[in-house]
Amino acid sequence: MSFLVTNIGELVTNNPAVGEGPLGIVRDAALSVADGRVEWVGRARHAPAADRGLDAEGCAVLPGFVDSHAHLVFAGDRATEFAARMAGEPYTGGGIRRTVSATRAATDDELRENVARLREEALRQGTTTIEIKSGYGLTVADETRSLRIAREFTQDTTFLGAHVVPAEFTDRPDDYVSLVCGPMLRSAAPFARWVDVFCERGAFDADHSRAILTVGQAAGLGVRVHANQLGPGPGVRLAVELDAASADHCTHLSDVDIEALAGSKTVATLLPGAEFSTRSPYPDARRLLDAGTTVALATDCNPGSSFTSSMPFCIALAVREMRMTPAEAVWAATAGGARALRRTDIGQLRTGAAADLVILDAPSHLHLAYRPGVPLVRHVMHNGVLIP
Ligand SMILES: [Zn+2]
After folding, report:
1. How far away, in angstroms, is 133 Cα from ligand 1 center?
2. What is the pLDDT of residues 165-174, one digit of tens each?
3. Residue 60 · residue 360 · CB < 8 Å
4. Residue 109 CA to ligand 1 centre (angstroms)
5. What is the pTM of this model?
6. Residue 78 C-alpha to ligand 1 middle, in angstroms?
7. Measuring CA to CA, which residue among 267, 262, 303 is closest to residue 99?
8. Structure confidence by residue, pLDDT tens digits, 203-259
9. Hey, is 42 helix, strand or coil?
10. Where are the domains positioned within the chain?
11. Contact of 238 with 209, CB cutoff 8 Å
């Protein structure tokens, strides 16, 4: 069964070989799909015949968004903490422990329903790939079940047992790191593709972070790091040292950090929803891009510091607040996210790629930033299937 999307006013392929600029834009385009993959891309007048079709009515079509950083396995919410912060209280990350208590008390079904609800919410806004972290269980059993549930929704699951030191280990963080590196990792690894650490003052220092990431790597997991969010620190350099796929947040960077990122394969994943929701200064995307770093955008969807699942919102923030061009932001939210997950099958619309795409209710990708807060995603296709 083949499917043709035709009458596309502006097709963003992210393949400069077939279209204009870094987004590889093809105008008056069509795209055909078979067996969940992109089969053909080009000018509409050259389109092949297909069994079924959809008229895009001159609108823009983009690769589905790739949200490479999300914390969806949790229970409860922290709306009152958000309100307190907006009334002037600083964000310290301490609220994570409240979510840990609620998550431990929840049943598997409660956690699963919450992930399903958020996954659906993201999909309707055009997110066709999402990474999901554990990190609100912080016991062997709770981290393992978090990842088991996450695995039902994505192949990109991340073990984040080193999110914070849980309350019962406050006076003996070394013991907690031993637990994470030993029994917790052994139990969680079969359900994870990645290992991640919150490398930050008040969470895990460079030595603890390196120990955890290194044993994760030895267990076959790829590395990602929560780095330099709340202040300067060793996270970014550690990420580069360990050839992490991504260093996430990158809000407080030195020249050395930027040089290290620019000379590496590690993507700088920026999460402007977190700065928005904690009323903090945004990362300097311009400095990263001008240095030649690969930049991704993701939501950081979590109940404390960034409770948004909307990639279009993050694109709008990146353009307005971080001086990214609309094209840079769209690339970062699609191809950039794919790079941050070291995947070549998503984030672009070329022959053989996953048929993951969004059809906007707008003539151009520019409208994602130009019309902030407006639901512009008209249709979403995931693995060749139009989401009803
Ligand atoms: Zn995070």
Report:
1. 8
2. 999 999 999 9
3. yes
4. 23
5. 0.97
6. 15
7. 303
8. 999 999 999 999 999 999 999 999 999 999 999 999 999 999 999 999 999 999 999
9. strand
10. 2-64+348-386, 65-340
11. yes
The 157-162 sheet, strands edge to edge? 132-133, 157-162, 194-199, 222-227, 246-249, 267-270, 295-297
What would the DSSP string read from start to end of 291-350?
A: TT--EEE---BBTTTB----HHHHHHHHHHHH---HHHHHHIIIIIHHHHTT-SSSSS-S
Helices (H) and strands (E) in the chain, counts: 15, 17
To the question of domain 2-64+348-386 being in CATH 3.60.70.12, the answer is: no
* Matching residue, tokens 């609620």: 102
- Collapsed DSSP state (helix, strand, coil) of residue 195: strand
Q: Which amino acid is at 31?
A: L
Residue 94 above 80 pLDDT? no
The Å distance, Cα 297 to ligand 1 centre, comes to 12
Helices (H), the chain: 79-86, 96-105, 108-124, 140-151, 173-179, 185-188, 206-218, 235-241, 255-262, 272-278, 285-290, 311-322, 326-331, 337-340, 367-370
Tokens of 342: 């070291």
Common-topology check for domains 2-64+348-386 and 65-340: no
CATH dotted code for 65-340: 3.20.20.140
